[in-house]
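Q: Study each token:
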Amino acid sequence: MNMGISATGRPTVQGKQAKIVSPTQERAILGYLETTRYPHRDRVMFLLVRHEGVLFSARKSQDCR
């Protein structure tokens, strides 16, 4: 079974749908990440994962046409 990591840091099983993060939740996550030991690294990782999700959903919607 393939495992991944969700935006909350919890393991997820690939093949399950990811939850949508609202703008309010995103601000809360970014605020929390400022309190971690490596805030810059954590912020970059979160934003990269979010960006990949946006690109993936855009590609997926184009494939469905």
